[in-house]
Amino acid sequence: MTQEKGKTHLFAVPNAAENAHESRDFQDVRDADEPEICPKCYGSGMEVVPGKGARQCECRKQKKHHDYLEKARIPKRYLDCHFHNYKILNPSQERAFRFASNLAINYPANERGALFMGTVGIGKTHLAVSVLKGLTERGFSCLFYEFGALLKEIQGSYNANTKTSELGVLSPIFDAEILVLDEIGASKPTEWVRDTMAHIINTRYNDKKLTIFTTNYLDERRNEREEVLEDRIGIRLRSRLYEMCKTIVIAGDDYRRNFDHVTPIGKR
């Protein structure tokens, strides 16, 4: 309690400094909760350019690009992949890089997709994701799926009553302007797998949708025991892919082997 001129106060009166400090704290919390306002368009989405008129603000373009990237479902592991950090170590990688970058620049003038083919760890998925990112930057709707993961989603949506898979799983696959199907042929080639793959590929083929594939399987056997892509997906689908995509064989060493490389002392 405090006393002032014979009067008793039940609560102490805070001083001005404390009030000011609390006010600043409250303001900081309020500012943190409020979204940042773009200094160019002040939240309107339209930027006024002196002497030229109004145009869509860059902030809206960035948000739209961010939304497109989220919808593309690119795995976190590949979020940093882009053309500018793709390492070219041999002529086959240079040819693949040129085709991929031209595809990202010239689409939709180029209606034919790509089939990046080669052993593991040579940058096939890196290039496929780079094309995807380049096209999202241009405003196209894109989608990434690892084929094995897609099959699991379809199986997970299987309805025992109707004997069908939920259309909600396949609709985005059919609707995407550009689709990357990573690692086709990796799943065990059962009749169901081949039927599902045929349904996806034929639907996109008929709708003239651009599709980019990657695979670890080649077209030519290097020994009698080695399986080729045709063994994994069937002769009809392999034939269809010849028409849908440019086959690009990439050679090279598995870059992941360098992860455990230790530089000897004195050689750094």
Describe this entry's structure for a reader.
The protein has 268 residues and is α/β, with parallel strands linked by helices. The chain has a domain at 74-255: Rossmann fold (3-Layer(aba) Sandwich), CATH 3.40.50. Helix content is 42%, strand content 15%. It is built from nine helices and nine strands. It has helices spanning 16-33, 58-72, 91-106, 124-137, 147-156, 167-175, 191-206, 229-233, 235-244; strands at residues 2-4, 7-9, 46-49, 53-56, 113-117, 142-146, 178-182, 210-215, 245-249. The strands form three sheets. It has a five-stranded parallel sheet with strand order 6-7-8-5-9. A two-stranded antiparallel sheet has the order 1-2. It is globular and about 70 Å long.
* Bulk shape: globular
CATH class of the domain at 74-255: Alpha Beta
Instruction: Give the terminus-to-terminus CA distance.
Output: 73 Å
The low-pLDDT segments are 1-14, 25-33, 262-268
CATH second-level architecture of the domain at 74-255: 3-Layer(aba) Sandwich
SS-derived structural category: alpha/beta
CATH homologous superfamily title of the domain at 74-255: P-loop containing nucleotide triphosphate hydrolases
Q: Care to count the β-strands?
A: 9
Strand order of the largest sheet: 6-7-8-5-9
The main sheet comes to: 5 strands, parallel
Q: What is the average of the pLDDT values? A: 80
Radius of gyration: 28 Å
Helix content: 40-55%
Order of helices and strands: EEHEEHHEHEHHEHEHHE
Query: Into which percentage range does the β-strand content fall?
Result: 5-15%
In DSSP terms (H or I, runs of 4 or more residues), the helix count works out at 9
CATH level 3 topology of the domain at 74-255: Rossmann fold
